[in-house]
Specification:
Elements: H1 2-5, H2 18-27, H3 30-41, E1 48-52, H4 58-66, E2 71-76, H5 79-92, E3 97-100, E4 113-119, H6 127-140, E5 141-152, H7 162-167, H8 178-187, E6 191-201, E7 204-212
Parallel strand pairs: 1-2, 1-4, 2-3, 4-5
Antiparallel strand pairs: 5-7, 6-7
């Protein structure tokens, strides 16, 4: 398959760091950040939810634990991270669909999801991949659906912390400014893109974003 020949940055930035990723993120407040992202999304019973770049499955497992009446799908290109995500879901006794694939080629029909999440993933992507990913997000969102995105702050902050520097080289963060992300969302056809909040965390400065699909008629 073509996907198997594509390269990608692993969930923790490097394969060697994958076992350290969850403990470090939890220690430095990443779980609280993801909970805040989830609260922002106002998930409703019966929703279908997608997490692109789900990594080791922290967010998708949290969503299913808190919202047992929604369908939850996680997508990631890294089979090692997905294996950890499956074990995490099994320990939590929740059912989640976990698929291997890339965010700029989503293997789902148009208008499949009410909510799409991206948590500490967008900065992994090259500029062209970011544009394609956000267009794919717009395509798979149902009318009235929304994208909720959390990531490290961009270069204007110059406050990326220890964890960001440990797991990610500076070049992966240089194109991650608020203005650039908002512009990419708008160019992808997402409506009302905005920064919901900014926050300084022990692992770096982070920002929460939101954008909507075309409203229901």
């Amino acid at each position: 398959m073509e996907e198997s020949r594509r390269t990608y940055i692993p969930a923790a930035g490097h394969d060697w760091a994958l076992p350290l990723y969850d403990p470090f993120v939890k220690l430095f407040g990443g779980d609280r950040a993801r909970k805040a992202l989830l609260d922002q999304a106002a998930i409703q019973p019966g929703h279908c939810v997608l997490d692109i770049g789900c990594g080791t499955g922290a967010l998708v497992t949290l969503i299913k634990r808190l919202h047992s009446d929604v369908d939850v799908v996680g997508l990631d290109p890294d089979p090692k991270a997905l294996a950890r995500a499956r074990r995490k879901a099994e320990r939590a006794a929740v059912t989640i669909q976990l698929d291997q694939g890339f965010s700029d080629e989503l293997p789902y029909p148009d208008a499949s999801f009410n909510r799409v999440f991206s948590s500490f993933m967008l900065h992994h992507l090259q500029a062209g991949e970011k544009e394609k990913t956000l267009r794919e997000v717009r395509r798979v969102l149902k009318p009235g659906g929304s994208l909720h995105l959390l990531d490290f702050g961009g270069p204007e902050s110059r406050q990326n912390g220890f964890l960001a520097r440990l797991f990610h080289s500076s070049h992966t963060l240089k194109d991650n400014s608020d203005s650039r992300i908002i512009a990419l969302m708008s160019q992808a056809g997402l409506a009302n893109p905005k920064v919901v909040r900014r926050q300084a965390m022990p692992f770096g400065k982070i920002a929460y974003y939101q954008a909507s699909a075309v409203p229901e008629p």
